[in-house]
Amino acid sequence: MSTHAHPRHPRGVTIPDELVRRLAGAKSMTVLTGAGVSAESGVPTFRDAQTGLWAQYRPEELATPRAFRRNPRLVWEWYAWRRKLVANAKPNPAHLALAELERLLPRFQLITQNVDGLHQRAGSQRVIELHGNIMRTRCYDEGTAVYRWEDTGDIPPKCPNCGGRLRPDVVWFEEALPETEMELATRASTTCDVFCSVGTSTVVHPAASLPFEALDSGATVVEINLQPTPFTARAHFALAGAAGLVLPELLASVRSRFRISLSELPAGQKPSQCRRS
Ligand code: OAD
Fold first, then answer.
1. Is-contact 60 69, C-beta < 8 A?
2. Measured from the CB, is residue 38 less than 6 Å from ligand 1?
3. Which of 85, 197, 249, 268 has its CA 20 to 30 A from that of 223?
4. Which of ligand 1's atoms lies nearest the C-alpha of 47?
5. In terms of C-beta density within 10 A (0-12 exposed, 13-18 middle, 19 or more buried), how is residue 8 classed?
6. CB 7 within 8 A of CB 245
7. SS3 letters for 93-114?
């Protein structure tokens, strides 16, 4: 069965009953998020025409080890600009709905390609960061995390331990993803009952292969996005709309489903799925 809803107008998406039924009965849910989930917080995506970062900047000049070796100042300053933007941003209803779903469902795992930390700020606790975190810094030479350094006016600043250059603790193009995080993400995707991909263009691998792996492993797969992606045609449920509108609606539908199940049970008994509501 497959439900695809990609109307021209993204507002007013109805959550299919069958999806709500499957979610309410799911023992585990895994969600993969991308830049689209933070778009409504004012954090630009990468590939959206006009507004996406890669529509305005060249990734090979800003987001590769070679770019950093060639012009470390430019790269540091670009990330410093993005860090400031992220620090001033606030979690939006999509982040908040995901944090609430984590509290509601028995086993919930969030996997994000975002480096902005907005999921954690919204209250999500089980977050796998596949592409690092822009608020962290590490030594380019030693790879170790650096929390404090002396402000000598150098840009980028110098590592207090070896004098090497500091860099943001994010994954650049041509770099491998952190091994443990990737392993955990693969396991969470291939063992869940429901997998939901939100706000990602599904083109950057290996993260982009996770929805397909979830599908091949028998999960019910859902996509929430403003635009179709290479995964849309394969998703059991493709919901077209802004994450900040669709996810709260999804949460409300699951909640009301739980309330119905509760009212149908003999007094004092709770459905096993309903952890903390
Ligand atoms: P992209 O910019 O490639 O894709 C963003 C997706 O979000 C697009 O499919 C949009 O249609 C969708 N979108 C935009 N606004 C939305 C909204 N309000 N609600 C729902 N969907 C919305 O971002 P990612 O897929 O996250 O990697 O990009 C993956 C990786 O490519 C990033 O982590 C980054 C980038 O290069 C590195 O820097 C290593």
1. no
2. no
3. 85
4. 2
5. exposed
6. no
7. HHHHHHHHHHHHCCEEEEEECC
Point out the ligand 1 atom lying closest to the alpha carbon of residue 115.
33
Helix, strand, coil percentages in the chain from 3-state DSSP, rounded to 5: 40, 20, 45
Q: Tell me how far apart the alpha carbons of residues 25 and 8 are, in angstroms, rounded to a whole number.
A: 31
Q: Ligand 1: which of 58, 119, 225 to mutate, most ligand atoms within 8 Å of CB?
A: 225
Question: For the segment 180-216, what is each residue's pLDDT rounded down to a tens digit?
Answer: 999 999 999 999 999 999 999 999 999 999 999 999 9
Using the mean position of ligand 1's atoms as its centre, give its distance from the Cα of residue 41 in Å. 13
- Shortest CA distance to 54 belongs to which of 64, 44, 67? 44
Print burial letters for 192-203: b (CB count within 10 Å at least 16), e (below 16): bbbbbbbbbbbe
CA separation for the pair 158, 156 (Å, rounded): 7
Ligand 1 pocket check for 6: Cβ under 6 Å:
no
Task: Please name each of the domains of the chain with its CATH number.
Answer: 1-42+91-131+177-277 (3.40.50.1220), 44-88+133-170 (3.30.1600.10)
Indicate if the pLDDT at residue 165 is higher than 90.
yes
pLDDT tens digit string along 112-161? 999 999 999 999 999 999 999 999 999 999 999 999 999 999 999 999 99
Cα 277 off chain centre by: 24
Which residues are catalytically annotated? Answer: 131
